[in-house]
Amino acid sequence: MRYASAFVDSAIESQKSDAIEKDLQEFAMMIAGSEDLKTFIKSPLISRLDQQEAITALSKKAKFQDITANFLALLAQNRRLSMIDSIIAAVTKDLAARRGEVAARVQTAFKLSPDQEKALQDALTKAVGKTVSVHLDVDESLIGGMVVTVGSQMIDDSIKRKLERLKIAMTSNANNNAPAKNVANEN
User: How far is Cα 72 from Cα 61, in angstroms, rounded to an integer?
Assistant: First the structure.
């Protein structure tokens, strides 16, 4: 993604990559926590200037780095704020790759404690052989266990998935054990 790559280059050049990554994560949390903000940045009815001014004010209030504020204003000016989720993901992935890290997405049925998060990160780092940046999501529908995605690999060790597999196994066994119909004796 062109915007993300250029932004990462600028962030690294200015030696503020950690700060801008933090700014973008905070901006993502603001969007996730506000339906009004989500609607505002995705609406084609809001003028470029209004979006740009609002984003500049928001960036100032949040005390974002100048480079982050300018980047978000540029996205508003070019009508790209609607793509902010994928842009933030691309920036995060690019920064992690440049640090020699691999990003992992972990879904759990409940919020992990800081000790559990650290143990999980250590275990994933050991398994992958690189530093792993873990992004945690809570999905209560998993019931228990977790789903780990690293790159294109996914490990689903959730109770939900185990129950689905058990249901499939029981259904197929029930179908296989049903008495066979004797077609020869029907006439």
Answer: 14
pLDDT in tens, 2-59: 878 888 999 889 999 999 999 999 999 999 999 999 999 999 999 999 999 999 999 9
Rounded Cα gap, residues 109 and 105, in angstroms: 13
Amino acid identity at 71: F
Per the DSSP assignment, residues forming a β-bridge with 155 are 148
Separation between Cα atoms, residue 58 and residue 26, nearest integer Å: 11
Choose one of 96, 125, 158: the last residue of a domain.
Answer: 96
Global pTM reads: 0.64
In the predicted structure, residue 100 carries a pLDDT above the cut 90: no
Pairing of strands 101-108, 131-138: parallel
Domain count, the chain: 2
CB 138 within 8 A of CB 169: no
